[in-house]
Every structure is written in structure tokens, then in C-alpha cells.
Write a structure and sequence with these properties.
By secondary structure, this protein is of the alpha+beta class. It contains five helices and 13 strands.
């Protein structure tokens, strides 16, 4: 059968990133300037379950050959911070990446923690025309706007809740390829909550009696059913899910712009 997807993540900080000191100050794609860069390949590989690598030679080879560099750049117009990931296939065989996500800023919490500390996010899952705005609810309505640095390589294909996140707030990621997740979303599930165990039902989410899935319905009192309605719901994402294919020696550059809207969200 098909090779199962191998999940790699930097969230657990399973290994240190390697600073690329020589990259600082170098020209960035699009005319900007690199402020700092790190290679995170070892961190990603260290996050993989040992049995997933030892029992599957294809996954092991893909993980070994994948090089990922994260960089922070000043945009060419000087108005934005650019977060970029360069994925390079250093192996001898093509590598298919089923999903790529960039973690976004996380709100410190919700009321009753104090609405003054809350930052709400509003995502437009519009592919090449997608964007996310983060707005401080009270006070100055300070707004952070996130857009693709390149609409072709970095569309907002999906806005994924990071259920594996270790923090206590709301964590989402900007997803530029989502086929691996879409297969689970079609059944109203998402790793690591593929099934609702008895203990999980008591802890997450606390909104329903005997929930089948982690997804609440719009009334907040029930959970979505195990299967989406045929031809609708989670079975039909807003943007068609894709994968990223890297041929040997090929590099794919994924980048987003983070820019302050100083006059607030209406500007």
C-alpha cells in the first residue's frame, strides 16, 4: 500500500537548531535582507517516532535527505518581517510532502483571563489571496496582518488548529499544502485526536456529552459526527488540498509577510 505520512515538527524542540551565522546580512529572495537564519533539519528529524523511521525505509530516507532552513528577513520595502522556510531534497529519490504548516502567533488566552490581554485572529482561507489578521481586542486595536510573500509558493490553503500544541492558548498554523491533513478532516478527525478515548472525553473538549470527534458544532453543545455529510462539510475544503513534490536537489521556498497595520484593522 501507500507509504504512511511521517509527521515532523519543531514544536517539541527535540534537537537544537543550527545557527547559520554567515547568512545574516545576505540578500534575501525578493530583494530583502536576511536578519538571521537557522537550519532546523535535525530538530525535525528528532521529532519523528523511532519506529516510524526504523520500520519504513522510504520515510527514513526522506527524513535523512530533507534539509530545512528557517530565516527571518527584512522585506524589500522595509515594511514587513518575512518568515521563510527553504525545503531542499538532498536525497536521491523524490520526496512528497503531504502538508506544510507555519505556526502563527498565539494569544495568551481567553476571558476570564482578562479581555485586555486577548488577541483575536481572523483568517481568510483564500489560497493565493489568503490572509490572517491578529487584532488586540481593546485599547489601540493594534493589528498584525499576515499575507503570502509569494502567492504561488505560499498560499493560505488551510488554517489548522494545532491540537498537538503544548501551550495554553489558541495555536494555529498557516498551511500551504494540506493533503495529508485533508484525509483526516474528511472524517472530522485530526492527529493526535484520531479517536475520542474515555480520558480525552473528560478533558478535551469540555463542551459535549459523549463526543465522537474533537470538533464542536456551531451551538457549542454537541460534537460533529464521525463522518462528514457526503459532498459537503469537511469533505469539501475551501481550497483544494495539495502536496509538495521535491525532486532530488530541488528547493522549495515558502514565505509569509508579517506587517503592522498601524491605523487598525479597517485600514
Amino acid at each position: 500500500g501507500a507509504t504512511p505520512w511521517l509527521a515532523l515538527s519543531t514544536i517539541a524542540l527535540a534537537a537544537p537548531a543550527t545557527p547559520l551565522v554567515a547568512a545574516a546580512g545576505a540578500p534575501a529572495p525578493g530583494g530583502g535582507t536576511v536578519l538571521a537564519a537557522q537550519e532546523v533539519s535535525a530538530m525535525l528529524k528528532a521529532s519523528a517516532p523511532a519506529d516510524a523511521l526504523s520500520l519504513n525505509s522510504a520515510n527514513s530516507a526522506a527524513a535523512a535527505g530533507l534539509r530545512v532552513v528557517r530565516s527571518y528577513e527584512r522585506s524589500a520595502d522595509g515594511a514587513a518581517l518575512v518568515l521563510r522556510f527553504n525545503l531542499t531534497n538532498g536525497g536521491r529519490s523524490p520526496v512528497e510532502v503531504g502538508a506544510v504548516g507555519l505556526a502563527m502567533p498565539e494569544s495568551p488566552g481567553h476571558p476570564p483571563a482578562g479581555i485586555e490581554s486577548v488577541v483575536w485572529n481572523d483568517a481568510h482561507v483564500g489560497g493565493a489571496h489568503g490572509w490572517v489578521e491578529f487584532v488586540r481586542v481593546v485599547g489601540d486595536e493594534a493589528t498584525l496582518l499576515v499575507t503570502p510573500a509569494d502567492r504561488i509558493s505560499s498560499p493560505l490553503e488551510a488554517w489548522r488548529p494545532m491540537m498537538e500544541d503544548l501551550g495554553g492558548g489558541d495555536a494555529y498554523e498557516w498551511v500551504v499544502a494540506s493533503a495529508a491533513w485533508a484525509a483526516e478532516w474528511a472524517n472530522n478527525t485530526q492527529w493526535p485526536h484520531l479517536a475520542m478515548s474515555d480520558s480525552l472525553k473528560q478533558q478535551y473538549p469540555p463542551f459535549a456529552t459523549d463526543p465522537e470527534t474533537p470538533w464542536p458544532t456551531t451551538d457549542g453543545k454537541r460534537a460533529m459526527p464521525r463522518l462528514a455529510a457526503s459532498g459537503g462539510g469537511a469533505a469539501r475544503p475551501w481550497v483544494d488540498p495539495t502536496t509538495l513534490l521535491l525532486r532530488p536537489g530541488e528547493t522549495s521556498s515558502i514565505a509569509i509577510r508579517l506587517q503592522l497595520a498601524e491605523a487598525g484593522p479597517r485600514t
